[in-house]
Amino acid sequence: MADAAPTRALTDWLLDSDPALRWQVERDLLGLPPSVWEATRRRVATEGFGARLLALQDPDGQWAGGAYFPAGFDVAAVETQGQPWTATTWSLNALREWGVDADVLAGTAELLDRNARWEYDDLPYWGGEVDCCINSWTLSNGLWLGADVDGIVDWFLAHRLDDGGWNCAWVEGATRSSFHSTLNALKGLLDHERVTGDRGRVRAARRAGEEYLLVRGLFRRLSTGEPVAPWALHLAYPFRWYYSALNAADHLRAASLHDGTPPDPRMADAIEHIRAARTPDGTWLQERRHPGEVWFEVDVPAGAPSRWLTLVATRVLRWWDGPAGPDEA
Predict the structure, then answer these.
(1) DSSP one-letter code for 269
(2) Is the pTM of this model over 0.85?
(3) Is 197 left (phi over 0), alpha (psi -120 to 50) or beta?
(4) What is the enclosing helix (H) or strand (E) of 282?
(5) Of 203, 212, 232, 237, which alpha carbon lies 20 to 30 A from 295's?
């Protein structure tokens, strides 16, 4: 369908943004030469969001003095205050997703190896811990920064559940997979394949996890076909650890491009929900901000047009509607 193509006005609005977003518009929506979008991506470390966050790094390599939570944070306060998004893992996630080159953080992997410990059992940072989502981000961040995180891949293979996915609550005895945990695990495994080229060990596990989401249409219960919960179709950026059909569709787009496979037709209902959320001017609205302390806001308040959501949703629809889409394939 041609309606996934952004208008000139929409493109200009998306380009009038932080370099962390702009380079992705140039690459994913405009198809500009690498010389253009790579130059924009290099600016992330010296301008805007990226430069601001890099300046907040502690001398010991951490952010906010902690691995997953800021130093001194009372974990029990998450229930009333929300998850803080300022500690090391969240800061690394943002910088990596914004496209900061690993060379800008030269020495950080070694500093974290010496100084960072997980709040869970004081475990060493690059070894990961027991939470699937945390281990996925540690895998992706370690691959990016050159740390030895290969053991985390083995951990994922050993902790995949019988239904094909993962659940961070496995340590409490959960035996059924979670949408949230499975999607976050898949992102780390795909990053491992991209960086190492090691497809043999992880591809079958990744595809089984993707099948867990696909057989549920990205948002439905397998047992009844009803939506699993309202959050499955919410639109909120940054994604953080939260699942959404848009977040999952963007991962499956990346996996499809990596594998050289067409979009899976079982995504069709989720894609139409994403399409239906587009406003007449071609934008998508922020539905909520996930609660919790941040260094600074990177997207708009609830109810306003979101450049980030518009970027992600537009590139998903262009992939789905394109020549390799499910109908044409």
Answers:
(1) H
(2) yes
(3) left
(4) none
(5) 232
